Structure formats: C-alpha cells, structure tokens
Amino acid sequence: MAGLYLLVALASLMCLAIIIRPQLLWHLSAWQYKNPEKNEPSDAWYTAQRLGAAFSLVVLLIMVSTVA
C-alpha cells in the first residue's frame, strides 16, 4: 500500500509541475528537433497540457480518497 501512495505522490508532483510550468515537457523533448525554436508548441498546446495535468491530478486525488 505504501508503494501505491508513493506512486500517487510522484504523479501528483509531476502534475503540479506541469500545471505551474508546462514548458517543462517541451524542454525535455526539444532535443529531438533539429531547430527546437521553430518547433516550439503554441500557447494552445501549453493550455491543453495544463488542463490535462489538472484533470489527472483530480483523478489521482479521487483515487486516493476512495482507496484510503
């Protein structure tokens, strides 16, 4: 059970990091592009990442509250 809580805590921290700074995901994958500045995502992509992370965080919190 402690392993589950650890995984949920790590996933929650990742979600919070993406909500606060969605550019983090881009910087982790920018190395794959020959010219990263030209391929940087739009503001809509960053907003979608924030919304997805917020939704995931809510799901994680609901999951923890039902398991506990």
Task: Name its key features.
mainly alpha; 68 residues; 3 helices; elongated; 75% helix; single chain
Quick rundown:
The protein has 68 residues and is mostly helical.
> What is the ordering of alpha helices and beta strands?
HHH
- Biggest sheet overview: none
What are the segments in which pLDDT stays under 50 over at least 5 consecutive residues? none
| Spatial shape | elongated
Mean pLDDT: 91
Helix content: over 70%
Round the Cα radius of gyration to an integer and report it: 15 Å
Count of DSSP strands? 0
State the secondary-structure class.
mainly alpha
Terminus-to-terminus distance: 10 Å
In terms of DSSP E residues, the strand content is under 5%
Q: Figure out the total of helices.
A: 3
Describe the structure.
The protein is elongated, with a radius of gyration of 15 Å. α1 (2-20) runs antiparallel to α3 (43-67). The longest helix has 25 residues, at 43-67. The mean pLDDT is 91. The termini are close together. The chain has helices at residues 2-20, 23-29, 43-67. It has 68 residues and is mainly alpha-helical.
Topology:
Layout: H1 2-20, H2 23-29, H3 43-67
